[in-house]
Structure formats: C-alpha cells, structure tokens
C-alpha cells in the first residue's frame, strides 16, 4: 500500500512539474493565437489571417502550441528521472502529438503524458545498470536517451498506435450510422468526443466526421462540434474566476489565457488543468460539451466553416442557439468543476507565487 502511495505521489508531482513548465508557453501561445485569429476572416477552409504582421503573430503562437505537449512530456519524465529523462520525454511527446506510423495516428496530450511517465520510469531503471566506469560518463547523455527513445518510440508506433487508428476508423463508421437517426444523441456524442482528449485522436475523429459531412452539405454536426470545442477552455477559465479556492495563484494566468482560447475555439487551453486534476476536469468538460452539442443539434445549429468559438458567429446558421448551447454547456461544466474539485491547500497556494 505504501509503494502504491509513493507511485501516486510521484505521478502527481510529475504532472504538476510538467504543467508548471508549460504555463508560460500556453499563455504566450494562446494569447498570440487569440490576437491573430481575432483579425481573421471566416472561410470554408477555416479562419484565414490575411494581414502579414498578424500572420507572423499567428505563426509565433502556433509555435508555442507546438512546443506545449513535448515540453509537458519532457518535464514529466524529468521529474521522475532527472536530466536523462528530458530528451526522450520531449521527443516522444512530439511524436505523440503528431501523426505517425502507417495509420498516421496522433494521441495528443494523453499519449504524451503516458510516454512521459514511461520515459521517466524506464530511465530510472536504466540508471540502476552496473556499467564500467569508462561507459558511465556517457550513459546519461548518449546511451540512456537513445535506448529509451528507441524502445518506447517503436513500442508506441507498432503496438500502441495501430489499434488506436483502427478504433478511430471504427468510431467514424459508428457515427456515420447514427446520422439522421437521433440528432440529440449524435450531438451529445460529438460534444463528449470533442472534450475528452482536447485535440487528441478522439477529438480529431469527431473533426474528421463533421468535415466529411460538410463536404456533403450537412452542417449541423459541425455546429455541435464547433460549439463543443469552446466549452472546455471557457469553463476552466471562468471557473478560475468563480471558484478561487480551487486553483493556485499559478493557475490564474492560465485561466485568462483559456478564456481567450475558448472564444476562438482552441480546446487545448484546458489541457494544463486536465493534467493537474484529470478526475475532476474530464467529467466536467465532457458533460458540459455533451449537453452543448446535444442542444446545438436539437436546434439545428449549422457552422459553415471548420472552426469554432464565438469568433465564427457571423458564419453560423442559428446564431442564438449557437450561443445558448455554448453557454449552457459552460455553465454546467463550471458548476461540476466547483463541486468536483477540492479546495486547494492554502500553503500550496502561497508556494505557487
């Protein structure tokens, strides 16, 4: 029991460490993206930024977001195993967050967290090896990082990614079979899928499904999806303002950034909160997004572009219900977060300054 407790404490510390290092990256990346996209135009291809200066701002923000998941995984591994875990964690975090393998699977922040933890523990084991003194000096900078990256990289690509790709293809088929049978249920499922991994394979499956229907002139499922993408970051951002005893001082700038990201439909703004408290955050945002998606479908809201958040309001059919669906979902998520999240220790709050 004590060993299990130590592992849980190690993991909690590792996740908190990962989040602490990505906070400035999320804030900078999110604000730059919000500023740039706010000047964009809604087109059938999504939000397009035409001003070159704002495009440069957008590129900088996108760079921040591209770094967020690798940094998260790297510092999870670092917390568990020290410096030798940093390179494998970051490289494998990048791998998890980008399409790879024959199925071009990406597992997002959940996959990155898993690989960060696996890297940390595998590096820990490697550090117990008895090796000659001549090799010992190059172990942490050459042998251990190469070994861990290769072993876990191959395991991820050939063992983990393939069944995930197959499962996602099956999920698209199931959703296609539901089209036209139960709008409310379909909207709820799309909403929950959108929130569960915030940019990961399940979220991307919902996106692929709605884009395929858009190509056939069916826009309501995309409406549900684009309502749902905004709910997690908006809910977490508003929750930091309302339920102040549930968050540390370090969480407050993340909350502000999450609100901006929610307004422009970037679900990933909720990721740092989910990493720190997955048991409270995931159910809250999934239920809120499911309700928002169901309300949207029930009222035949149609989003005509592949983007989300209030920024696309001019190109939405059923604007009133688009807004109502989004904010009902946000209100439900905020309420659930208030009751599911525990009050933070005041000492922890002070040390986070």
Automatic annotation (TrEMBL):
Its main location: membrane. It is found in: Cell inner membrane. One of its GO terms (biological process) is phosphoenolpyruvate-dependent sugar phosphotransferase system. It comes from the Bacteria. It holds the Pfam family PTS_EIIC. It comes from Alkalibacterium olivapovliticus. Signal peptide: none annotated. GO terms for molecular function: carbohydrate:proton symporter activity; protein-N(PI)-phosphohistidine-sugar phosphotransferase activity; protein-phosphocysteine-sugar phosphotransferase activity. The chain crosses the membrane at residues 21-40, 60-78, 107-126, 138-161, 181-202, 254-273, 318-340. This is PTS system fructose-specific IIC component/fructose-specific PTS system IIC-like component. One of its GO terms (cellular component) is plasma membrane. Keywords: Cell membrane, Membrane, Phosphotransferase system, Sugar transport, Transmembrane, Transmembrane helix, Transport. It is a multi-pass membrane protein. The keyword Transport applies. Residues 11-350 form the PTS EIIC type-2 domain.
């Amino acid at each position: 029991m004590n060993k299990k407790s130590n592992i849980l404490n190690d993991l909690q510390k590792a996740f908190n460490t990962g989040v602490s290092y990505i906070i400035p990256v999320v804030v900078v990346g999110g604000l730059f993206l919000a500023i740039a996209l706010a000047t964009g135009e809604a087109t059938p291809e999504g939000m397009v930024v035409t001003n070159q200066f704002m495009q440069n701002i957008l590129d900088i923000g996108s760079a921040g977001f591209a770094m967020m998941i690798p940094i998260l995984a790297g510092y999870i591994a670092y917390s568990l195993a020290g410096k030798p875990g940093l390179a494998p964690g970051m490289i494998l975090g990048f791998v998890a967050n980008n399409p790879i393998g024959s199925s071009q699977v990406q597992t997002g922040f959940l996959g990155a967290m898993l690989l960060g933890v696996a890297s940390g523990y595998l590096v820990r084991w490697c550090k117990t090896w008895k090796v000659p003194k001549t090799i010992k000096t190059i172990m942490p900078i050459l042998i251990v990082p190469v070994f861990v990256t290769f072993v876990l990289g191959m395991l991820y690509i050939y063992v983990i990614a393939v069944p995930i790709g197959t499962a996602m293809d099956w999920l698209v088929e199931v959703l296609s079979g539901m089209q036209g049978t139960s709008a409310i249920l379909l909207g709820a499922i799309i909403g929950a899928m959108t929130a569960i991994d915030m940019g990961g394979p399940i979220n991307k499956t919902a996106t692929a499904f709605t884009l395929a229907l858009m190509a056939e002139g069916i826009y309501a499922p995309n409406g549900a999806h684009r309502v749902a993408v905004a709910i997690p970051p908006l809910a977490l951002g508003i929750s930091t303002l309302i339920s102040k005893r549930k968050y540390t001082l370090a969480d407050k700038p993340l909350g502000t950034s999450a609100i901006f990201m929610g307004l422009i439909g970037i679900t990933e703004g909720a990721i740092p909160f989910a990493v720190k408290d997955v048991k409270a955050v995931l159910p809250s945002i999934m239920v809120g997004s499911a309700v928002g998606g169901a309300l949207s479908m029930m009222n035949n809201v149609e989003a005509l572009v592949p983007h989300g958040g209030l920024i696309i309001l001019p190109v939405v059919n059923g604007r009133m219900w688009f807004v109502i669906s989004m904010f009902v979902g946000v209100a439900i998520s905020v309420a659930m977060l208030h009751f599911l999240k525990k009050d933070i220790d005041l000492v922890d709050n002070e040390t986070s300054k």
